[in-house]
Amino acid sequence: MSNPSILILPGDGIGPEVMDQVVRVIDWYGAKRDLAFDVSTDLVGGAAYDAHGVPLHDDTMAKAQEVDAVLLGAVGGPKYDDLDFSVKPERGLLRLRKEMDLFANLRPAQCFDALADFSSLKKDVVAGLDIMIVRELTSGVYFGEPRGIFEEGNERVGINTQRYTESEIERAARSAFELAMRRNKKVCSMEKANVMESGILWREVVTKVGEDYPEVELSHMYADNGAMQLVRAPKQFDVIVTDNLFGDILSDCAAMLTGSLGMLPSASLGAPMANGRPKAMYEPVHGSAPDIAGQGKANPIACMLSFAMALRYSFDQGDEAARLEQAIETVLADGARTGDLMGPEGGTPLSTAEMGDAILAAL
Amino acid sequence: MSNPSILILPGDGIGPEVMDQVVRVIDWYGAKRDLAFDVSTDLVGGAAYDAHGVPLHDDTMAKAQEVDAVLLGAVGGPKYDDLDFSVKPERGLLRLRKEMDLFANLRPAQCFDALADFSSLKKDVVAGLDIMIVRELTSGVYFGEPRGIFEEGNERVGINTQRYTESEIERAARSAFELAMRRNKKVCSMEKANVMESGILWREVVTKVGEDYPEVELSHMYADNGAMQLVRAPKQFDVIVTDNLFGDILSDCAAMLTGSLGMLPSASLGAPMANGRPKAMYEPVHGSAPDIAGQGKANPIACMLSFAMALRYSFDQGDEAARLEQAIETVLADGARTGDLMGPEGGTPLSTAEMGDAILAAL
Ligand SMILES: CC(C)[C@H](C(=O)O)[C@@H](O)C(=O)O
Ligand SMILES: CC(C)[C@H](C(=O)O)[C@@H](O)C(=O)O
After folding, report:
1. pLDDT at B23 (0 to 100)
2. Is the pLDDT reported for residue B127 higher than 90?
3. Cβ separation of B201 and A88 shorter than 8 Å?
4. Is residue A132 classed as helix, strand or coil in its secondary structure?
5. pLDDT value at position A113?
6. How far, in Å, CA of A94 to CA of A84, rounded?
């Protein structure tokens, strides 16, 4: 039997340098844990635009459809700010999400003990925080038609369409309930059902799916209140399920609560493939950070934890995922820090590669 | 000449009890500062539904169009949760905003010195915080057509439409720049121009309006990053301008940062009327808080500060507004607290009316 396959798309900015460290970790699993992967690498985002004039080449898209998992670094940068909407780096990422039909975006917001002081929130509000946000990723206002800028009378009008079918809501909700069953059995669904009909349908369908999970406690919250409650008392949540746009904002808000943005991974999962594995893409929550790109300052941990999520969700290697997560906790507890994790006390931060060294040593 | 007129709509939940205290303050201005108002009172939200079967009677709507300012308490409550969308309490509020064409919703997020400890954020992150969020209030996904729940094949689909014309964006942006000129001359505009065409148009029009205000430093931020930056370092902002839906979420997020939700007012302003005053409605940011309604526990300060905003923006009485704001700061500095402002040390909270007494005494 051939090895499971991974397509690596380092992308732009700090993407390539953090991905270099992840490749070392992948190699380690092959050499030491008898877990070899067939790894290939390709371009996405601005890097793909520079090479091909599009942010994702059709051949790359085809490869992504065939592999067992895609690992993506980050896309975008000021260099591409003036490009036409249709070829912006982000379109490469959105095309992957849409064509692979990755409907469930899992964004854990965890506060690492060693880093609780980094949060702008009080320590007791965030210490031990462990939320899972499930964001619907293939529909809503991100993809709804009609969309565009149109002439209307003597002025222009910008239009986007929020659209959710019952089945789109249902499959995202089901992912959230399944996760809750393996966690603390609480799901909070967020929308604006007081203002938007799409939110009314969302609430109705989530409620219906919830009937299949009688052990899970389901609550509903308007998204504006959700943002407030995340800031006020985030530990009240276990799993949050919400749509594409609310999920974009609320998951970033939740990520920032932890103070550990350079630490947070994500998984985007679709339907099972013929081999039983879900279509899947893994990527850090942080962006391409063009201001520090190429300087060896970036924190590779979020991208490594994304690979840990791949081990868990794509390759059914929960123990091996935990091994990597544990190694990372150990080096943090020992005081290893990249620049983004340095406190006001100062000290010498580790470079991206030195952090890689430390984690490999801990493994 | 007749007195300026105010229509009071106490609404639901704690609305009536906080409004009682505001009426005492209004009366004080008439008696002591020679600033008499013609005050009338009417129903909105669930209270209007109970009386008339609609959340806003046409007669009330007509009155709102005629007065110099509307003062609203809060709408909604669990009693009305199962009502049809079209007659929910919120529809009364949305109808007022839409028909009065109140396009600029001003939401200050201020951290009161005496209350900085209440924030879930670290004191140095929020102490002295003073942001003004300008939220577009009459368009976007709140009002765009088509909207509804439709049959499509053998399932239903929920649809809402995000729609912004150039002139809608322009007038909201202009309000933001005008405010910035009287503040710290910084405007940050938030949208998702990387994903939504309506965001592209938003960014373009705001940039164009900015050319009329060369002294104001304009920046743009994606709304997800905006949520992060609000949590990470809110003091970087002066004026934020954003659309109806992003504004709903981001302003609640910003409000919660201050830890003083029971303290925050808002103003919703439209075009100038024949007498030169803008169409205007003022309301606290907090909701109807059904859990404590009718118990004399509610904090009347947000509603009083909303009246202070009315003095400033509708009646050109900036000094009198400052007098009321100062009185409120004084009673807080003296330790007056309603239940929502009590720390873990305990003590006896003031009732709603006792807080009113204290503020009147300070005036
Ligand atoms: C880069 C951008 C298109 C993307 C999004 O809006 O979904 C990002 O913010 C994210 O959350 O992954
Ligand atoms: C009550 C509701 C309709 C309203 C809104 O969504 O605008 C509220 O959340 C607000 O921010 O004033």
Report:
1. 98
2. yes
3. no
4. strand
5. 84
6. 15
pLDDT at B346 over 90: no
Q: Tell me the ligand closest to A143's alpha carbon.
A: 1
Three-state SS letters, chain B: CCCCEEEEEEECCCHHHHHHHHHHHHHHHHHHCCCCCEEEECCCCHHHHHHHCCCCCHHHHHHHHHCCEEEEEECCCHHHCCCCHHHCHHHHHHHHHHHCCCCEEEEEEECCHHHHHHCCECHHHHCCCEEEEEEECCCHHHCEEEEEEEEECCEEEEEEEEEEEHHHHHHHHHHHHHHHHCCCCEEEEEECCCCCHHHHHHHHHHHHHHCCCCCCEEEEEEHHHHHHHHHHCHHHCCEEEECHHHHHHHHHHHHHHCCCHHHCEEEEEEEECCCCCEEEEEEECCCCCHHHCCCCCCCCHHHHHHHHHHHHHCCCCHHHHHHHHHHHHHHHHCCCCEHHHCCCCCCCCECHHHHHHHHHHHC
How much of chain B exceeds pLDDT 90, in percent? 93
Q: Is B50 annotated as a binding residue?
A: no
CB–CB contact A200 B161 (8 Å): no
Q: Give the model confidence (pLDDT) of B246-298 as tens digits.
A: 999 999 999 999 988 889 999 999 999 999 999 999 999 999 999 999 999 99
- Superfamily of structural domain A130-257: Isopropylmalate Dehydrogenase (3.40.718.10)
The 10s digit of each residue's pLDDT in A74-84 is: 999 999 988 99
| Token pair in block for residue A197 | 């009909």
Q: pTM above the 0.90 mark?
A: yes
| 261-290 in chain A: CB under 8 A from chain B | 261
Residue B361: half-sphere exposure toward Cβ, Cα within 13 Å: 11
From chain B, the residues in CB contact with A251 under 8 A are 224
Omega before B146 within 30 of 0, i.e. cis: yes
Q: Is A59 annotated as a binding residue?
A: no
pLDDT above 90: residue B239:
yes
List the 37-56 stretch of A: residues with Cβ below 8 A of B. none
Angle, helix A223-232 to helix A244-257, in steps of 10 degrees? 10
Q: Is B252 noted as a catalytic residue in this protein? A: yes
Mean pLDDT value across chain B: 96
Q: What is the CATH number of domain B139-257?
A: 3.40.50.2300
| Angstroms from A60 CA to nearest CA on chain B | 22
Contact between B227 and A155 using a beta-carbon 8 Å cutoff: no
Fold of B1-110+260-363: Isopropylmalate Dehydrogenase (3.40.718)
Residue with CA nearest ligand 2 atom 7: B248
Q: What is the mean pLDDT of residues B86-109?
A: 97
pLDDT tens-place string over residues A40-65: 999 999 999 999 999 999 999 999 99
Residue B310 has pLDDT above 70, yes or no: yes
- Ranges of each domain in chain A: 1-107+261-363, 130-257
Q: Report pLDDT for B347.
A: 72
- Whole-angstrom distance, CA of residue B293 vs CA of residue A7: 57
pLDDT for A65: 98
- Ligand 1 centroid–CA A248 distance in Å is 7
Residue A1 pLDDT? 66
pLDDT band at A2 (very low <50, low <70, confident <90, very high): confident
Which fold is adopted by the domain A1-107+261-363? Answer: Isopropylmalate Dehydrogenase (3.40.718)
Identical fold between A1-107+261-363 and A130-257: yes
- The predicted pLDDT at position B221 comes to 97
